[in-house]
Amino acid sequence: MTAPVVLIPQPARFLTWLAVGKVKVVGEVPKGAALLCANHASYRDVWLFTLFCPSARLLVHPEVFTFLFLKGWATRKGFVQVSIDDAVTLLRRGEPVAICPTGLVEARSENELPFKTGAIRIAQQAAVPVVPVYFQYGTYPGRWISKFSITVQNILLFLLWPFYRTGVTILIGTPYVPMGEVKAETNALKVKVVALAGK
Asked: Is residue 70 part of a domain?
């Protein structure tokens, strides 16, 4: 991996900087079509993809387009609702695509949720490499926050942002082509993503 690159806040990055703090990127995304697969520790992840791979088409839950403050921004960034067929089409056109295979946010970033098989099916159908990505945020609240739903957890993190705005390191792993059985490759993908933590 390459040395960390510190992203300096610019107007287009201001909201991410405000919500997260300093952002460092370790590694590089390959040029051309590739499927970026990351852990999902925060709703702030959607902004981070646009920093280290601005051309990536992020697959998001349809609810993202129901929030007035997100709909316009997500549309301008080229986000698309989760669809295997649409993702394969984009990749075959040569566009990078990004996805968080858990489908749900893990606010404490404990990596307990399983990855869904859609990411591997997309990569295999499109015949493109998978790029493991790990978002490593700073300090999180204690386990008391786990008593609340994921949505409430993220609201609390947002409200308490001055205390938990401790930056994030984005670790980009080595691209690889998943050739095996879908479930086995899905499990292997999670291992590769989680293995980036702490590097």
From this structure: yes
Residue 194 lies in a domain: no
Query: Are the CB atoms for 21 and 168 separated by under 8 Å?
Result: yes
Residue 95 within a domain: yes
The tens digit of pLDDT for each residue in 53-105 reads 888 888 876 666 566 666 665 666 667 777 899 999 999 999 999 999 998 87
Distance (Å, rounded) from C-alpha 188 to C-alpha 147?
30
Angstrom distance (rounded) from CA 47 to CA 113: 22
- Structural domain contains residue 198: no
**Secondary structure letter of residue 176 according to DSSP:** B
Total Cβ atoms within 10 A of residue 187: 15
What residue numbers bound the domain in which 63 lies? 5-189
Indicate the residue type of 139: T
Question: How far, in Å, CA of 142 to CA of 25, rounded?
Answer: 26
Return the beta strands (E) in 18-95 as ranges: 23-26, 35-38, 57-60, 80-81
**pLDDT tens, 125-175?**
999 999 999 999 877 677 787 788 877 877 787 777 777 777 889 999 999
How many domains, in total, are found in the chain?
A: 1
pTM of the full structure = 0.81
Angle between helix 118-126 and 84-92 (nearest 10):
30
- Tell me the residue type at 56: A
Which residue shows structure tokens 């690889």?
176
